[in-house]
Specification:
alpha/beta; TIM Barrel; Jelly Rolls; 9 domains; eight-stranded parallel beta barrel; 37 helices; 96 strands; 19% helix; disordered N terminus; GH; beta-galactosidase activity; Glyco_hydro_35_CS
Length: 1939
């Protein structure tokens, strides 16, 4: 032990021990000296002989600024941890080969590298240390810690330098290091069968031991997967890495290492982030639970990460999402390594920190001194700094190139000869080509994949696309694309300079062993071309951003171009000691930030990280230089870049803001109409449309709900959560929006009382909207509270508010000849000025009528409100206010609705034209409304249709304030949104950053709810009256003395008369008009008429009647109680000045009479439905009377985070809905609104209480429920649609034992229409339907099993089955058709009419996907192979030959299908034409013409059902469809919300459907078997259902690729078959029904979810019993027919040919060629020299075996590696030595197999999918072979059944046919053939080719259905290509294994 260290430690321990009486860690474990280190030789750890549990936290010294090491280590110890763990990063410590840096080495990162200092500080802070020394560390660090110069193959001596440093810091030497980890997660890369890698670990161990390292050695791995594969148990203790299932992992350790300690080396308490992903977090409760379970086990544990820190500079890593070596699967990791750790990136405590501290106090058995957590390091938000200087990247390359390397070709950065021969490791590399002439529209092509990102400039101008969203990562400039192309100019250029600047965005840190060697960065995978001409002679410039270089850059300019990539400089001046801060990069695009010469880190607007942590140690007192290398568009804080000197000015003909011209492009959104939780979402969407401003009113009645009582967000009112106006203003500014505040006092806005508080009506004198003193007194009092709140948010004070509107449409206030009171608005102006408001003041009016009557021109700018005649209105403004700006304050892009009217809309094209006219004028404009929102609760207003003051002209406004706006009521995009965005991009002269529109907020249709309890209205009044006021007469609600003397403002008021004797036929009379509606009850029974239609508004109970009367009894009643319950349905918001004083609510215009006798002595009960009152109601009953007015309660239970929904109120009559105590809003069956928007923030996880106050009749027509919808258009447009929906609901009400079938439900009244997609939801025959479909292909399932599978599909709750129609099966030869009796080999599968009938009989609808192209992983994607015989064949285009055959086929198919359409009484509800066409369409009009022609062919054949297309819409958009003809649907297997929201965006107001939800996946031969976990698929399916969307599960039952029907893929764009990937025989697809039709867990998950989410209840049968499977006894091979003899004696045809030709070109099958099977090329009578070399030019299509004189000479297929050798498609020009000795008159047979024709390819590849040998000649010793005999082997039934020459002498090593007989004595059963002991070939059962097998897997068994067998003898023939087995075995389950 070094004495210095020892003294420091003793002093430390001594001081600690005095104060707390507890020893430190070091005192406890070293009090008697040090005799031993950490021991793992027993089931627990000991340290120096004492028991220890290691409680560690990971902190990586290289991710934390050196001055903060002590702070972070103090905090680690203060949490109760006793150890810190860190990796050691080789790439930092040896940045150049042989050049080391341990703190003073001069590298760019040297200040992070004082490793010895870190170890000393850890010891001083009483922590032990675990060192994880690599060489590989992973750690999400660049190259996993490897130096990039290793890619140059340098010598290595790293450990011989590192270990002598570390040696003295070992615990047994007096230091802190108690353990060394060697390597990391090594088990993931070491194969099971390769022991040589353990030699590597042993060698590392020897190196450490040889350098004096004696502490415990450990390894770590994901042991649940790797076991002990990545360790050497005799040398290392294996530890575990995991983030879940602690018991499972720890028990595994106990099992693997009995009698040894158990340790978690990485407990993942959070997770890291990739760029473009969402930010990862783990909830504190979850992490706490897992940590406690580890501690309780008990186990030692290292928290990974305890403090993640930062990937400063270029140190972030990346990973690969695939096994390729071409960077195509690259995923870069963010700069932040926050990891959701206990200490966040900035070192601050999180909840997790204190959870850990609490648990360690509880579980640590060793009590040592633990210090208190230190104070946090303060953070500060420095003032914004402006960009001062700029240097374009082109100028950087011209003037500041650190090196220029000339190179013939592009090369990777690692190969550059710089940095002492170590190459370039990080940064950027620029490839420059100078003095080049470019033709117009020159195309740049970069071969291979870019590593990692690239921007392209021509003559310094950016020509590559800007990174706007994560979707752009799939395009040019990024790693995903192979052979990416870009048009780089539109006009011809001479002597141009082209720069390709490639970024290294993090070298992979986790990969397959073979991938590390290919992790070069830059361009290296191929050449660069311009117009197909290879470019050479490059100048290459490495940009490493080293400090010396950055600090000395020349050529900075003060002229700044924000749209030009380059360096941008700003100076941050700090006058005191610096503090930590974060750089907010949200307004920048992508790049690198450098602070005082140090590269801080990368940023990218695609997120998730939007800020960069900037620690104080990187700053200094004084001037700090911040340089940003921006790839695309820099942030120009356009209007404030030089500070703020002035606000919005209207003193000239145009607006200026802070001295710069501005056009105000605004959108209206009222904060009080949108849930606070959604403010940011709506503001983001407003900004993303290109608007620069948001406008809102301020509602006085909300902010002063009672006189003198104010609420700005925490005032306790019922609406308080909507009223945080300051938060709204801050948020608008954060989202880059200015604000126009329209502050009233009168706002109109279709809001209750136009924003006035109702308590104003209590004043005897109240001169609304005048300078009358009482009114002004209250106005001034309100403004004196409001304006101090707003004052600090003015633009000139640094806030967002650029203008204040006072009053609203004041010009209309003229009464007769009396003009508006301008003294009043002058006083308003003065009040604002007195309160420090200095921004622009405006007024607004309908200027064509009011001119300037409602304004004062020298104080206000007048603006205009209109919805038509834009030029007339704007010219009027110019005339009225010459030389002033022109602005539209309200451009009415839609309109609001009154109850009982039709829903108002303005066609998008009309609104677009009007908006464009305004922009072109040009004028500033506010779109009213951009997002209307909702009149929640009682906030809706009303109009007056006359000038009377008696309420007779009343028009109540709906709850929805949708307004037909660009963002609808729920915040979803409409067509208008994108039209606005398009026009602003065109007309806005000021270009500022506009973000992409955010994703939509998902909506869900919750299950139907039953009403559970009722509280009748009379009992509410009896036992729940909040107040009872006794009054001689009826009085208005505003006059009641409640709410602190403010009266009643909203709700209902009940007038009760008790103990009254009523004669028979007593007449009730109410004098005057009712305000607004009334219901009457006698002894609790409703006696007033029900509101059934809008005509009823003219009768009793409504405002239109004066002195209304009602007979309330038919018999005499004694001591009766009469209740008149009057509703305030929205106080008038717009009227003439004389009407405001008469807007009382209730009964107040006269007395009430019974038989003409005035009634007095009333009890008055106000019902305001305040939350506390509603939540505490008493007297609920489970006995429900649906015809009695009252409250009805239902509970909505939500198990996950709530989603938006709509309440469907169509079966209720009229009333109010209350959700969790909050009045959601009014409903009324008279419409137009039929649904209530229910936002997620009003709901909660768990039980949600929904109460409905129904005035008349509740929903009780047997279906005693109501329903939640999403995407439900909340307005009825016609009575017809309403009736249809009502019928739908009535049918649903049938009890479960009498439920209708699908067909009964949808066709009970006949069939008048089919499936409609003309609204946001599907209807079928006029009734709403969600399509819940499952895919099952009739041609993949034995006909005898169709009914079984269809029964199972229906029993799962699905209502539809989807199938493709396969052209190649139905027209197997040109012009020869088979639909079930056509005589083809597959005829029994082809009875399509029978399939359709069976589906209908099993109560399923059908979706037919009719091609012609179907993909489907089916042979040739469904195309007949005989199409390849044509010289000209334009697959999937309008090319005439192709079109001819397509139309001929359809002329036969469609007349068959025509009669099975739904509208003709059949099951087919939709036809899909083509498939995933967007992937092949080149964008030329021809392709859409092709789709259009297909459509015309179908329509011309009387196909009338819905037409659909389907695609991967995230990539293809609408490219593969024609929206006017087809409904586009989506195919995907992940991210449902993104896909479905994309559909909503692409097809607004149309149904959303997933045509293919990939619930599993298919398999290629040699791959592993693909599965998708049931939990995963269940979650995804539920998210689709919740969206909600219709959905087809692909596949619900996959079935089998019987015979030769399997398809194949192509992994490249070549035409030579080199990328071929054959698909297996099984099409199991990991489906709900497996290949054998058995149920899987997924089946029952689907069934359960459909029971939950399907709103339509129809009869669903029980799942049928399974079809039994049996393992028949093994059968022996009885006969053999060698392949040579098969050819000799059984050739079906022999074709003589000069050259080899493909099978399709053979003149057989009536001129259709050979489609499937094998083709034999035989050369006879040839003399072979010894060691003759056979050479086949080109690629084999697909596999080949070679025999010489009947003896196999080609290699056997043993493992998938053999596919790379002779006999397979991957090799070009393969060669084979075919004999060792000379042979005379030999026969050479080359037998080529068609192993599945490609089903998915580029459009230009289909023409080259020939099979056999066709790409070139065949040579023997370089001599071309000719005169071939060609024999096709199609394995047709007649041929197989009649083979001659079978022998009982069997040679199992000779390729050929092997026969066995299976005797079955009873009815056959399903079984599986176990083929594991066979090699490769084909099985034929009773003459039918069952399918292919191959030992390479993954499929090792063949499904053999009972219908293919028979009672008696079954003949099984196996064509084995290599080595046969002597018997054939059977199993009951499929076998999967990849060799």
């Amino acid at each position: 032990m070094a004495l210095g260290i020892f003294l420091v430690i003793l002093f430390n321990v001594f001081v600690l021990s005095i104060s707390d009486q507890l020893p430190t860690n070091y005192e406890y474990y070293t009090s008697d000296g040090i005799s031993s280190g950490l021991s793992a030789d027993q089931p627990y750890f000991t340290l120096n002989g004492k028991n220890i549990s290691i409680y560690s936290g990971a902190v990586h010294y290289f991710r934390v600024p050196r001055p903060y090491w002590r702070d972070r280590l103090k905090k680690t110890r203060a949490a109760g941890l006793n150890t810190v763990e860190t990796y050691v990063a080789w790439n930092l410590h040896e940045p150049q080969s042989g050049v080391y840096d341990f703190g003073s080495g001069g590298s760019e990162m040297e200040d992070f590298l004082h490793l010895e200092e870190f170890l000393r500080i850890a010891q001083e802070e009483d922590l032990f240390v675990i060192l994880r020394t690599g060489p590989y560390i992973c750690s999400e660090y660049n190259f996993g810690g490897f130096p990039s110069w290793l890619l140059r193959e340098k010598e290595m001596g790293y450990y011989n330098v590192l270990l002598p440093i570390l040696k003295d810091y070992q615990f047994t030497k007096g230091g802190p290091v108690i353990a060394f980890q060697l390597e990391n997660e090594y088990g993931y890369v070491q194969p099971d069968d390769n022991p040589s890698e353990s030699d590597y670990l042993e060698k590392l161990h020897e190196v450490f031991v040889g350098n004096g390292i004696v502490e415990l050695f450990v390894t770590s791995d994901g042991i649940s997967s790797t076991g002990l594969r990545g360790t050497v148990p005799s040398l290392f203790l294996q530890t575990a890495n995991f983030g879940s299932d602690p018991e499972g992992n720890l028990n595994k350790l106990v099992e693997l290492q009995p009698g040894r300690p158990v340790m978690t080396m990485e407990y993942w308490i959070g997770w890291f982030d990739y760029w473009t992903d969402d930010h990862h977090t783990v909830k504190p409760d979850t992490s706490k639970d897992l940590y406690e379970r580890i501690l309780k086990f008990p186990a030692s544990v290292n928290i990974y990460m305890f403090h993640g820190g930062t990937n400063f500079g270029f140190t972030n890593g990346g990973s690969f999402s695939n096994n390729q070596v071409d960077n195509s699967g690259f995923r870069p990791i963010t700069t932040s390594y926050d990891y959701d750790s206990p200490l966040n990136e900035g070192g601050d405590y999180t909840d997790k920190y204190f959870s850990i501290k609490e648990l360690l106090e509880k579980y640590n058995p060793v009590k040592t001194y633990v210090p208190d957590p230190p104070d946090l390091i303060p953070k500060i938000a420095y003032p914004a700094v402006s960009i001062k200087e700029h240097q374009s990247i082109a100028e950087t390359l011209d003037k500041n190139a650190p090196y220029t390397i000339n190179s013939e070709t592009v090369i990777p950065m690692e190969k550059l000869d710089i940095n002492n021969g170590s190459g370039q490791s990080v940064g950027y590399i620029a490839y420059r080509k100078e003095n080049i002439d470019l033709k117009a529209n020159t195309t740049l092509k970069i071969e291979g994949h870019i590593c990692d990102t690239a921007i392209v400039l021509v003559d310094g101008v950016l020509v590559s696309p800007v990174l706007e969203s994560k979707d752009d990562i799939g395009g040019f400039g990024y790693w995903h694309l192979e052979d990416s192309t870009l048009v780089i100019n539109t006009e011809e250029k001479s002597n141009a300079t082209v720069d390709i600047i490639v970024e290294e965005w993090g070298r992979v840190n986790s990969a397959g062993l073979f991938q590390y060697n290919k992790s070069f960065k830059g361009l290296w995978q191929g050449d660069v071309f311009l117009n197909d001409e290879k470019v050479s002679d490059w100048k290459i410039v490495p940009l490493e951003f080293k400090k010396d270089w950055t600090d000395n850059l020349q050529g900075w300019s003060e002229k700044i171009s924000y749209n030009t990539p380059g360096l941008f400089k700003a100076n941050l001046e700090i006058s005191s000691e610096p503090s930590d801060t974060y750089l907010d990069m949200r307004k920048w695009t992508k790049g690198l930030v450098i602070v005082n010469g140090f590269p801080l880190g990368k940023y990218a607007k695609i997120g998730p990280q939007q800020a960069l942590y900037l620690p104080a140690p990187f700053l200094k007192k004084g001037i700090n230089e911040i340089v940003i290398f921006e790839h695309f568009k820099a942030n120009d804080e356009y209007y404030t870049s030089d500070g703020i000197s002035s606000g919005l000015s209207a003193d000239q003909p145009y607006f200026t803001l802070n001295g710069k011209n501005i056009s105000v492009y605004s959108g209206a959104m009222h904060y009080f109409r949108v849930p606070r939780a959604y403010w940011r979402d709506r503001l983001k969407k407003i900004r993303a449309a290109g608007l620069n401003t948001v406008e809102t009113y301020l509602a006085w009645n909300l902010h002063e709900p009672q006189s003198g009582v104010y609420d700005f967000g925490s005032g306790g009112s019922e609406m308080e959560d909507f009223l945080h106006v300051e938060e709204f203003l801050k948020m608008a500014q954060e989202e880059d929006l200015f604000v126009i505040l329209r502050t009233g006092p009168y706002i109109c806005a279709e809001f209750n009382f136009g924003g006035f508080p109702s308590w104003l009506l209590r004043e005897e004198q109240m001169g609304f909207r005048t300078s009358e003193p009482t009114y002004l007194k209250y106005v001034e009092r309100y403004y004196n509270v409001l304006l101090p709140v707003l004052k600090g948010y003015q633009f000139t004070k640094g806030g967002p508010v650029i203008a204040f509107q006072l009053e609203n449409e004041f010009g209309y206030m003229q009464a007769g000849d009396t003009p508006p009171d301008t003294n009043y608005i002058k006083r308003l102006y003065d009040i604002f000025i007195e309160n420090g408001i200095v921004e622009l003041f405006v007024t607004s009016d309908g200027v064509l009528l009011t001119h300037l009557k409602g304004t004062i021109p020298n104080l206000f700018l007048q603006t205009a409100n209109f919805g038509s005649l834009p030029e007339t209105n704007l010219n009027q403004l110019v005339e009225l206010q010459p030389d002033r700006p022109v602005m539209v304050m309200e451009y009415w892009i839609g309109w609001y609705d009154h109850w009982s009217e039709n829903h108002h809309t303005v066609k998008p094209n009309a609104s677009k034209n009007m908006y464009e006219t305004i922009l072109k004028f040009p004028a500033s404009v506010n779109i009213y409304m951009f997002h209307g929102g909702t009149n929640f609760g009682f906030t809706n207003g009303g109009g007056l249709s006359n000038l009377d003051v008696d309420n007779s002209g009343y028009d109540p406004i709906t709850t929805s304030y949708d307004y037909d706006s660009p963002l609808n009521e729920a915040g979803d995009y409409t067509d208008k949104y994108f039209q606005v965005k398009e026009l602003l991009e065109k007309y806005n002269p000021v270009q500022t950053y506009v973000p992409n529109p955010p994703d939509l907020i998902p909506k869900v249709a919750y299950p139907v709810l039953s009403v559970e309890k009722q509280l009748v209205l009379s009992e509410i009044l009896d036992i729940n009256a909040p107040y009872v006021i006794t009054s001689e007469t009826v009085v208005a609600m505003e006059k009641i003395d409640i709410n602190n003397g403010s009266g009643q403002g909203v709700g209902y008021i009940a007038y009760r008369k008790q103990y009254v004797d009523l004669e028979a036929n007593t007449t009730l009379k109410i004098k005057g008009h009712i305000c607004d509606t009334a219901i009457v009850l006698v002894d609790g029974v409703l006696v007033s008429p029900v509101l059934d239609s809008k005509k009823d508004l003219n009768g009793f109970g409504y405002w239109r009647l004066k002195d209304s009367t009602l007979v309330i009894t038919s018999e005499k009643k004694s001591n009766a109680t009469v209740d008149i319950v009057v509703e305030e349905w929205g106080r008038v918001n717009a009227g003439v000045i004389t009407q405001y004083n008469r807007t009382f609510k209730g009964l107040w215009q006269g007395d009430v009479f019974l038989n003409d006798e005035k009634v007095s002595d009333w009890k008055i009960v106000p019902l305001e439905f305040k939350k506390d009152w509603t939540n505490n109601l008493q007297g609920w009953s489970e006995k429900i009377s649906y015809d009695t007015p009252g409250l009805f309660k239902a509970n909505l239970e939500i198990s996950s985070e709530p989603s938006d929904t709509y309440l469907d109120m169509r079966k209720w009559t009229k009333g109010l809905v209350i959700v969790n105590g909050f009045p959601l809003g009014k409903y009324a069956k008279i419409g137009p609104q039929q649904a209530l928007y229910l936002p997620a923030p009003f709901l909660k996880k768990g039980i949600n209480d929904i109460v409905i106050f129904e005035h008349f009749k509740a929903n009780g027509e047997r279906w005693k429920s109501f329903q939640c919808y999403n995407n439900f258009f909340p307005f009825n447009m016609s009575l017809g649609s309403l009736l249809l929906v009502a019928l739908n609901i009535v049918v649903l009400s049938v009890s479960s034992d009498k439920l209708p079938t699908n067909y009964e439900y949808y066709t009970s009244d006949g069939i008048s229409s089919g499936l409609s997609a003309d609204q946001p939801y599907f209807t079928l025959n006029g009734k709403n339907i969600s399509i819940y479909s499952g895919a099952m292909h009739y041609f993949r399932v034995p006909r005898a099993y169709w009914r079984d599978r269809l029964k199972k599909i229906r029993a799962a709750g699905l209502n539809t089955v989807e199938t493709y129609v396969a052209w190649n099966l139905h027209e197997p030869q040109s012009g020869v058709y088979d639909f079930g009796n056509g005589g083809s080999e597959m005829e029994d599968f082809l009875h399509i009419e029978e399939f359709l009938k069976t589906a209908q009989e099993e109560d399923l609808f059908v979706i037919l996907r009719t091609g012609p192209y179907i993909c489907a992983e089916y042979n040739f994607g469904g195309f007949p192979s005989w199409l390849l015989r044509e010289k000209q064949m334009g697959f999937r285009t309008q090319e005439p030959t192709y079109s001819l055959y397509v139309e001929r086929y359809y002329s036969v198919l469609l007349p068959i299908l025509k009669e099975y359409q739904f509208t003709k009484g059949g099951p087919v509800i939709a036809f899909q034409l083509e498939n995933e066409f967007g992937y092949t369409q080149s964008g030329t009009p021809a392709e859409s013409d092709y789709l259009k022609r297909l459509y015309e062919v179908f329509v011309g054949s009387d196909i009338v059902e819905l037409f659909v297309t389907s695609d991967g819409i995230l990539s293809t958009g609408l490219r593969g469809t024609i929206p006017s003809l087809f409904l586009h649907t989506a195919n995907f297997g992940s991210d449902p919300e993104k896909n479905l929201n994309k559909l909503v965006q692409l097809q607004p107001n149309r149904p959303v459907m997933t045509m293919e939800f990939w619930i599993g996946w298919f398999d290629y031969w040699s791959d592993n078997h693909h599965t998708v976990k049931t939990d995963t698929s269940t979650d995804l399916y539920e998210r689709i259902l919740k969206f909600p969307a219709s959905v087809n599960i692909y596949m619900f039952h996959g079935g089998t690729n019987f015979g030769f029907t399997s398809g194949g893929g192509l992994s490249n764009d070549a035409f030579d078959n080199s990328g071929f990937e054959p698909i297996i025989t099984s099409y199991d697809y990991d489906s709900p029904l497996n290949e054998g039709g058995d149920y899987t867990d997924k089946y029952f998950s689907v069934k359960k979810l459909l029971e939950k989410y399907n709103p339509v209840k129809t009869y669903v049968p029980d799942p049928p019993d399974l079809i039994p499977k049996i393992a028949y006894p093994a059968v022996s091979i009885q006969k053999h027919l060698p392949i040579a003899e098969t050819l000799d004696k059984n050739a079906p045809y022999t074709i003589n040919s000069e050259t080899v030709i493909p099978m399709e070109k053979l003149d057989i099958n009536d001129g259709s060629g050979q489609s499937v099977g094998y083709i034999v090329y035989r050369k006879e009578n040839i003399d072979l020299k010894a060691n003759t070399i056979l050479k086949i030019k080109g690629h084999i299509c697909d596999t080949a075996i070679v025999l010489v004189d009947g003896v196999l000479v080609s290699p056997i297929l043993n493992t998938k590696k053999d596919l790379d050798g002779f006999g397979y498609w991957r090799l070009e020009d393969p060669t084979l030595a075919i004999n060792a000795e000379q042979k005379s008159n030999a026969t050479v047979d080359i037998i080529v197999e068609e192993w599945g024709r490609v089903n998915f390819a580029n459009i230009n590849q289909y023409n080259k999918t020939f099979k056999g040998l066709w790409q070139g000649d065949v040579f023997l010793n370089d001599e071309k072979v000719s005169d071939w005999k060609i024999v096709p082997l199609e394995f047709k039934k007649d041929w197989t059944d009649n083979l001659q020459g079978w022998s009982e002498k069997i040679s199992y090593d000779t390729p050929g046919l092997f026969k066995a007989n299976l005797e079955i004595s009873s009815e056959p059963s399903d079984t599986y053939l176990d083929m594991r002991k066979w090699t490769k070939g084909l099985v034929v059962v009773n003459g039918f080719p069952l399918g292919k097998y191959a030992k390479i897997g993954p499929q090792q068994s063949l499904y053999l259905p009972a219908p293919f067998l028979k009672k008696g003898t079954n003949e099984i023939v196996i064509f084995e290509q290599f080595k046969a087995n002597d018997e054939l075995n059977f199993v009951t389950k499929p076998v999967w294994q990849t060799v």
